[in-house]
């Protein structure tokens, strides 16, 4: 979905299940973000991490990261006990959604449970 002239940007939301937990470490997520930003031609400008791997509540155990990019942000919640990864990419700069979605699915070897592209106005 290319950006319409009246849109501020777009957001890609991808929910993956049955992911490879070996790809859900801080090191792998750092490499993922670098590769993703190269793929979508975005400039990384700051990163904030939150690690809570030992949380007894499955829906909270994992790593979250917000990667600020020059045109907005990428957010990842990697829930290791559930083997789920939730990703949001929001940018006012256009990017190829299909190529990006395929890259995400391939990186985490997961099954897409939900995917949405939304124009931001």
Describe the structure.
With 121 residues, the chain is an alpha+beta fold. The protein has a single domain (9-120), classed as S-adenosylmethionine decarboxylase, CATH 3.60.90.10. 21% of the residues lie in helices and 43% in strands. It has helices spanning 26-39, 97-108, and strands at residues 9-17, 44-52, 62-69, 72-79, 84-91, 111-120. Strands 2-3-4-5-1-6 form a 6-stranded antiparallel sheet, covered by helices on one side. A hairpin with a 4-residue loop joins strand 4 (72-79) and strand 5 (84-91). It is globular and about 45 Å long. It starts with 8 loop residues before the first strand and ends with a strand. 23% of the residues are buried. The mean pLDDT is 93.
Question: How much beta, percentage-wise?
Answer: 35-45%
End-to-end C-alpha gap: 14 Å
Q: Averaging pLDDT over every residue, what do you get?
A: 93
What is the overall shape?
globular
CATH architecture assignment = 4-Layer Sandwich
CATH class: Alpha Beta
């Amino acid at each position: 979905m290319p950006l319409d002239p009246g849109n501020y940007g777009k957001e890609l939301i991808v929910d993956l299940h049955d992911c490879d937990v070996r790809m859900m470490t801080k090191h792998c997520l750092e490499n993922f973000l670098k590769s993703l930003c190269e793929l979508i031609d975005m400039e990384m400008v700051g990163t904030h991490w939150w690690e809570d791997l030992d949380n007894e509540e499955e829906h909270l155990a994992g790593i979250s990261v917000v990667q600020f990019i020059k045109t907005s942000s990428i957010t990842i919640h990697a829930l290791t006990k559930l083997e789920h990864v939730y990703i949001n990419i929001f940018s006012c700069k256009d990017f190829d959604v299909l190529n990006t979605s395929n890259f995400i699915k391939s990186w985490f070897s997961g099954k897409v449970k939900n995917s949405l592209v939304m124009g931001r106005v």
